[in-house]
Structures are given as C-alpha cells and as structure tokens.
Amino acid sequence: MSLPIDGYVRVSRVGDRAGESFISPDLQEQAIRDWAAKTGAEVLVQPHELNVSGGTMDRPVFNTIMERVRSGRSGGIVVYKFDRFARSLLGAISTLAELGQHGAVFASATEPDLDYSAPPGRMYLQMMFVFAEHTRSTLKESWATSQRLAVERGHHISPNGFLGYDQVDGRLVPNEASPAVVEAFRRRGQGEGWTGIADWLNNAAPREDGRDWNGQAVQRLCSKRVYRGEASRYVDQDRDGRGAIVNKSAHPALVTEDEWQAAQMDPRLARPRKGDPLPLLSGLIRCRGCRFGMSLGRGPKGERMYRCRARHASGRCSEPASVLAAMVERHVEGLLRRELARLVTATVGVSHERDQARTVLADARADLDAFRHDTRAKRKLGDHLWHDTLDGHLEAVRQAGSALERLAGQSAAVKEGLTENHYLDLDVADRREVLGGFIDAIVVRRSRGRGRNTDAIEARVRVLWRGQAPADLPRSRVASEIVPFDFSEGEVEAGVATT
C-alpha cells in the first residue's frame, strides 16, 4: 500500500496582498487537490505555511513534513509551483537528495510532470530553482530600496496600526487614544507591572480586534520606537547582519526619550534586592495549563516566584500556575545532581563505546572516500547504480556520526570534570547553561489546594530531559494555540532519552 503524499502550501508574506500576482493559499491548495484527483494519488494537505520565506528550508510546517518522510509516514511532497518548495538552489538540491534517499516523490501541481529522479528531470529542476533564487534576490533588492525611500519620507510600511495614531497618506497623526498611550508609558516608568497596565488599557483603550490586552502585548507596545516620533525599518544589507533605516522626526512623538527609556526598564531587575540570584530557570520553566514560559516575579510577601502570565496573544490560560522559585529550583537542581552522579558512574562504559563509534565513523568515511574516487566502479555500475551505492555510503556515514554524537552528549558534562559537587561551585549563569544542556523544559502544574504550594513539589513539576519535550512547545514571539500539557504519563528518567 502506497503512502499518502503531503500537500505543501506556502506564502512568504500575506499582509494585505491581493490581486492576480498574489497566489492565495486557497488557490494553491485547490490546485494540489486537482492534481491529486488527476493522478489518483492520496494527498494530505498540511496546514498552510504563512509569512515564511522560501530562502530558508527551516520552516515549521515544512519541518513537520520532512519528519513524516523520514519516519515512513509520508510518501513525498507536492506543491503548487517549484518556488513554493524553495527559493534557494542549495537548500532545494540537498532536500531533494534527502527525499530521494527515503524513496519519496516530489511533484509540482502546475508544472511539467517529469521524473525528477532521472537526469533530465533533475537538470530541469535545478534550472527552475536557479531562476527562483534569482527572482527572490531581485525582489529582495527592490523591496529594500522601496523601504528606504518610504522611511526617508516619513512613511510607515507596517500593515498594522499603532495605538494612539491614525495613518494619513502614509504618515502617523495622533488620535483620541494617544493620551492612553502616554499614560501607559507613565505607569510603566513608575514601576507598575505589565499585567496591571494591561488591565487598565482594557478599560481605557480596548483593542480594535476585540482581543484583550495582556502583559506581553503591553510590553511590545512600550518597546516601539514609533512613539518617540521615529519611522524605522531593518533591511538586509549583507550576509553578516541587517542595517537599520531610521527617520527620527517622521511624525509627532507621544513620549520623550527619557519617558521611553524609563518604560524599557524592569523595576525588579533595575533595583535588585541584596542577595537576589538571577532567574535560574528562565527560558526552561513552563506552565502546564498553556505550556507557555513562566516569568519571575514577587509574591505578596516579597518572595521570588515563577508565574504564568495567564493572558497570551492566542487566548487565556485556564490553569495559570505559580510556584515559589526557591522550591522549584531546589527540586530541579536535585534531579540534575542525581543525573550528574549517574553519568560519572557510567563514564568508563560510555568512553569505550565512544571509541568504538569513532572507529566505525572513520571506517565509513574511508569507504565513502574510496568509492568516490573509484572511477572504474562508476563506469561499471553506470550513473544510476553508482549514485544509489554512493547514497548508501553517505547514509552509513550519517548513522555513524549520529551514534558518536549521541555518545558524546552523554558525557559532555563530566568530560570537563563537572560532577554533582563541582556543579554547586558554579555561579548562577554557568548553572543555567548546564541546566539548559540537560533539560528541554520544566512544566509546572497549578496547586490543587487553596495555597499556591500546598501540593508536594514532586507532584507539581515534570522535568523534560533533553529529547523528551514535544516539538510544538510555544516559542517566543510565535503565535501558538493554548494547549495544556499532558501530565498523565509517568516521570521519565534522564538517561532514557539520551541512551
């Protein structure tokens, strides 16, 4: 029984685009379904990849499809046009080679139906991707020039509006909501928390899209330099970074430079209490109710606490968690020290296996090199068979490299002499780095009792060691659905995921 083929739809920038030049996601999907009906193939159209460039192969939906191919759940990829698959020649060729290694197909719903595993088909594909990459470079250069000219004229390119301003002929003009913006900056400058300001704004200046203000949204608002009277844009200049285009007098400012700077500071960090450690679990600790990251704050008695913000751009958390920082940090570090002790005991055996893995990798590389330079083998086998055999050698090198990398990761900490006792001698920054090397996430469940910490900490905290976290955990600045974490499965030991 043949495997289903994944339909892939991508739009680099949606915004307010329309017209014949904009190939909408629905049009792309319909073309893919028409192709499936014509060819008789079973196609599963995956969620649309929106506002993602084709200049990179690292895309969330595309990565999911490739994982399905690698795991044998998908028979390949079909796209509306070649440039929906990629606008990078190198990325396209390497990904197509990987599809070939897994016996997966690649097809375009609206372009010539060729055998892309054969030389003529591969040559045609390469030509198409060269044109796609050239088109992307040309558009990118033209877009950068347009942005520069617009900013110099004081125009704003963003399709989104700004609270407190109306856009008139491309320029920003203060409106009736501008006093609310000024008050938000004033409150932040005096040390009020983001959530408190969000509650005030929900009454004083409700959002036009109907969503509630939350702490993250207010933080983004107060970080915008537009309220200083600036129009700015970042454009790609070269491979080393981006260059800023700034017009510092594009429109009337709502706040002064000092007021803007005061709103950027976190009062808890700007005026730390004596002996306060840095947030040890920042970036790792998450709320079970929504799986979003928890932030460090203070309880009613001034105690350090990790809290879920409760309100997110995609909705509200149904069970926002909070936990005493000292309690959860002590618990997590205890688990880490136990893992370090286990690794020290296992170091001798791991080192022997690692030496064997190095030998296997060296042999696989030597075989690959010898085969590549064996001209007689190429003449004997022919082009198709030779490439198939070469793919086998490449796969052997990949598997040997993966095995060595896995074994190296097991003893990465102890090879530098890091033991459970040495760990305690590290400062907070170094301990955070060690924790991040061993742990993917720390999930905290809201206490079932009336108090915040009435349940045992062991029952409220789940540590996801390296390799155990779900691939779809919410990421910073990426809209994610509110989905609770499943606590039903039992605790998994660290060594299970790394061996």
Architecture of the largest domain, CATH level 2?
Answer: 3-Layer(aba) Sandwich
CATH topology of the largest domain: Rossmann fold
Query: How much of the sequence is in beta strands?
Result: 5-15%
Largest sheet: 4 strands, parallel
The portion of residues assigned to helices is 40-55%
Termini separation: 34 Å
Rg, rounded, reads: 27 Å
| Low-confidence runs of at least 5 consecutive residues | 16-21, 235-242, 266-276, 490-499
Shape: globular
* Beta strand count: 18
Mean pLDDT: 75
Give me the side-by-side strand order of the main sheet. 3-1-5-6
CATH homologous superfamily annotation of the largest domain = Resolvase, N-terminal catalytic domain
Q: Which structural class do you get from the secondary structure elements? A: alpha/beta
Total domain count: 3
How many individual helices?
16
The CATH class of the largest domain is identified as Alpha Beta
Structure in a nutshell:
With 499 residues, the protein is of the alpha/beta class. It has helices at residues 25-39, 60-70, 82-85, 89-101, 119-152, 178-189, 194-204, 215-223, 257-264, 267-270, 325-372, 375-410, 420-424, 428-438, 457-460, 494-498, and strands at 5-8, 10-11, 43-45, 49-50, 76-79, 105-108, 165-168, 171-174, 231-238, 241-247, 285-287, 295-298, 304-307, 311-312, 315-316, 322-324, 439-444, 461-465.
List the helices and strands and how they pair.
Layout: E1 5-8, E2 10-11, H1 25-39, E3 43-45, E4 49-50, H2 60-70, E5 76-79, H3 82-85, H4 89-101, E6 105-108, H5 119-152, E7 165-168, E8 171-174, H6 178-189, H7 194-204, H8 215-223, E9 231-238, E10 241-247, H9 257-264, H10 267-270, E11 285-287, E12 295-298, E13 304-307, E14 311-312, E15 315-316, E16 322-324, H11 325-372, H12 375-410, H13 420-424, H14 428-438, E17 439-444, H15 457-460, E18 461-465, H16 494-498
Parallel strand pairs: 1-3, 1-5, 2-4, 5-6, 11-17
Antiparallel strand pairs: 7-8, 9-10, 12-13, 13-16, 14-15, 17-18
Helix pairs in contact: 6-7, 6-9, 7-8, 11-12
